[in-house]
Amino acid sequence: MTASPLAELARLLPSLQLRTEPADLEHYGRDWTRRWTPAPLAIALPGSIDEVQAIVRWANAHRVALVPSGGRTGLSGGAVAAKGELVVSTERMNRVVGFDAADRILTVQPGIALEAVHNAAREHGLVYPVDFAARGSCAIGGTIATNAGGIRVIRYGNTRSWIAGLKLVTGTGELLDLNRGLVKNSSGYDLRQLVIGAEGTLGIVVEAMLQLTDAPPPSNVMLLALPSFDALMQVFEVLRGKLALSAFEFFTDRALVHVVAHGAQKPFAEDHPYYVVAEFDAHTQGTQDAVLAAFETCVERGLVGDGVIAQSEAQAAALWRLREGITESLARHRPYKNDIAVRIGAMPAFLDETKALLAREYPQFDVVWFGHIGDGNLHINVLKPDALDDAAFVTQCEQVTALLADALQRHGGSISAEHGIGLVKKSYLGSTRSAAEIAMMRGVRQVFDPNGIMNPGKLFD
User: Fold this and answer.
1) What is the pLDDT of residues 316-359, one digit of tens each?
2) Terminal-residue alpha carbon distance, the chain
3) Which SUPFAM superfamilies match (predicted)?
4) How far is residue 350's CA from residue 404's CA, in Å, rounded to a whole number?
5) Boundaries of every domain in the chain
6) For labeling, which of 117, 171, 293, 432 is most exposed (least CB within 10 Å)?
7) pTM
8) What are the backbone angles phi and psi of residue 162, rounded to the nearest 5°?
9) pLDDT at position 1, please?
């Protein structure tokens, strides 16, 4: 803190919280990847938009790099500060700013947790439909930075579908008020959408206008056991044709082993290689009949070996835990994660190729598959053996990821579905984006952040 630039920042903003204790540097300097040793200059916790702007201007004057930080639940190294950056945490900017009943817009600060947004929306009889397992700890600013998806993308889409407006402090310290909640606005480029998914490389989101919607009709959940990988997309087609699906999630037997060991209840007496959790509207007797008809169709076609339909909210929660508890159950193994996406139509051919690729390249590792198969998003987790050195493990996995990136390119997919690029995936960005696109992205970044202080090294160098 006695260093001249930090001392100047402290004098400039006497109410700004600045932390330099080693425990704080470690805590705020990393995300869930745990691959890089955190080494930030300090942690700044602004309490207002004015303070964020002042921090950015100070950073420009001293050429200090900034790393925006929310809940740090990211899985791509996007919030890592390992090279002396100043971490700008929005932790103190965590309030609901206001609610507009006519427009159904909830305006919030970026540090508010997703679960708190859900609770605030519920107070007005509405919902903010983006949802996933880290809801209690992830910050809304981070979900915007990565265009987070989650478990109900089939019905509601990703985060970008629900952002009515944004306030952004750019890399020069300028405050932009983007779209301002308008439903129709054909007045040039929609910079709001450009910011969503930019991983903090264009600026720091300091306020967000969230579009709320009606609560969904009553729903129910069923768990299906599948005999083969090939049955996945066929079951999806049957259910989608007969039910109003809001979620269609899958996981493997290896995922089930880990989540049950972590405290979840085993659903069936017999083991099966693949499982699906499906959530669907269930507000009429006709829906119940359709559920049974869909289940019977799958059984008759040999696509399902067993199944259970939740008979209570508690049972529905227990079934969801089998899917949502997977990430936490794998954490101690420090998994290498792939978060990939292809079009639904390309999924069968891609699954065939990828299954063979991973079986060939990872014979010695425990590979856990799960994901949002209904929107084309797969999570492939490779678990590190305890005896294997971290660096050697990552090196082996990255060699396979290069092959996976090639497969994604052939099938028109993406190396990142919802986790972002960050530090982890920037080597593979070219498999998803053309050279011309990446050049344009660099140009856009230069306009928003001419001195290159906003989250440098993330997305691309």
Assistant:
1) 999 999 999 999 999 889 899 999 999 999 998 998 899 999 99
2) 29
3) FAD-binding/transporter-associated domain-like (SSF56176), FAD-linked oxidases, C-terminal domain (SSF55103)
4) 10
5) 4-92, 96-214, 219-327, 334-419
6) 293
7) 0.92
8) -125, 15
9) 52
